[in-house]
Amino acid sequence: MRSLPGLLTLLLLAAPAPGAQAALPTDLEAQVQAIVDQALAESATPGASVAVVAEGRIVAEVASGLADREAQVPATTETVYPAASLSKLVTAVLVMQQVERGKITLDSAVNQYLVPARWVRDAGGEPVSVTLRQLLSHTSGLPVAYERALAEPGESPLSLDAYLADGLELVRPPGEKIIYADEGFSLAGYLAARLEGKDFQGLARARLFAPLALVNSSFYPRFDLDQRLAGAHGDPFGGTEQHPQVNFTAMAPAGSLRTTVGDLARFALMCLAGGALDGVRVLRPESLRELWTVQARAHPELDEGFGLGFAVSERPGRRMVWWIGDLPGASSRLEILPDHGLAVAVLTNASDPSPVNAIAEAIFALLAGPPPPNAYSADPAALDDLAGEYRIYDVLDQTLWYLAPLSNLRLEPRDGALQARLLVGDPFARLEPVAPGRFRVDGGILHGRSVLFEDGRIFVGWMSGRRLSWFERSEALAAYAGLVALLVLFLLGTGLWRGLRRLRRKSS
Question: Stretch 191-197: mean pLDDT, rounded?
């Protein structure tokens, strides 16, 4: 992760002890502005908007840079951004409202609420009992899927109803493994809306946006908001060009929310207040606690996992519920520290997660103190033993199977840690050792996530994979491909030579 060298050092020196609550600085907004300005200066991200919640209110809202680089439109606190997967937090609340009303239970099999054409089935076409709890904790067995839902500018996007019309197909048995499945949230949101007799946007507007006065939020394009929509900049591969925002409304409950940091901050205030805001209750405290209770972990010994919609981190002195968002040209983050009464919302208009991470981390260091220090130092021999190439499973849309080797993770010892890189591009993160076989990610979209190694397997955040044998590694695959290419050339050359010989014989 890009650091904020001078500023972050000063903040850490002045910060309270871990777990303590600092008094708000009188110049808080100026300090937050400096944090955001510096984060943008150290990245290629054009613009960002940030809101900070403390003491039961929004204590700072700032913006920096450009919302649209080509048109030179400045970013403001009223700039609208795609929130991407932060949509799932809103959807989880909307679904839990239906549970509160007794229209469904978390452990209900969702097929009983759907017509047969929309049932969840296994690869053989047989209906499978998948529960609402499994959909909301990414343990349903549904695959990673997003390509069919992304509509480029000028394309007519599928509706949520059309996307789900033929049902969904599992790739693993329910409850077996965490797979980050947008389709699961799309189905959960669709079902919640159906139980209410509304479309999904109508449900969100009636049950959450209107009661909480989230006047700048919508799951579907809205003319007044689109006039303030930030431009999209960059791509996951390091590009910096500007391009139109993609349309993700085919899976609206999973990722199409467009909003402002002010609206996200009001949503966080509702969460910190136990489900109510300004005298309006939208969720019971016990329902919120259920959303924030870990339902699934990639490994039982990891200090984090998925609740319902929210990710939950249980680090000592830093209990956090949160999630991130990422689309081509947008990165976002909403983090809530319930024990400190703090929340930070960050929205940016580029694919780079580094400034999002740096901003949130520096603000929390300012207000809640740094996380507990790490005094552990790894044995270099242990780092050498863990180095190698790893295949992380269930992270790509299945239609992009041919790109799987490009997502292999290479780990190399460097300066007392493991440097992480994909097969293409520069190193994107460091795995800092915190205990034998345990690390924490520094940098990239997985910043802050726990890592555990066990018997040749790696568990990182909500994902898992294994170390590849020498004959499975990218170099071996390249060699195999080269041999196949030589064989094809040989066969083509042999066939051509034989054809020419026949022609010469006939002509003679």
Answer: 96
pLDDT at 1 exceeding the cut of 70: no
> How high is the pLDDT of residue 116?
96
Distance between terminal CA atoms of the chain?
73
Averaged pLDDT for residues 398-416: 82
pTM for this entry: 0.89
Tokens of residue 70, six digits: 């080509």
Beta bridge pairs of residue 73: 68
Q: What is the DSSP string of 172-227?
A: S-TTS-----HHHHHHHHHHHHHHHTS-HHHHHIIIIITTTT-TT-BSS--HHHHT
Determine the residue type at 122.
D
What tokens does 101 get? 């009303």
Dihedral pair phi/psi, residue 168, rounded to 5°: -125, 150
Encoded amino acid at 265, one letter: A
pLDDT at 424 > cutoff 70: no
Nearest to 43 by CA among 392, 259, 346: 346
Question: Two tokens at 497?
Answer: 């030579």
CA atoms within 13 A on the CB side of 463: 20
Kindly report the length of the chain: 508
Kindly tell me the sign of the dihedral angle through the C-alpha atoms of 166, 253, 326, 233: positive
The answer to whether the beta carbons of residues 2 and 356 sit under 8 Å apart is: no
Check whether 27 has a pLDDT greater than 90. yes
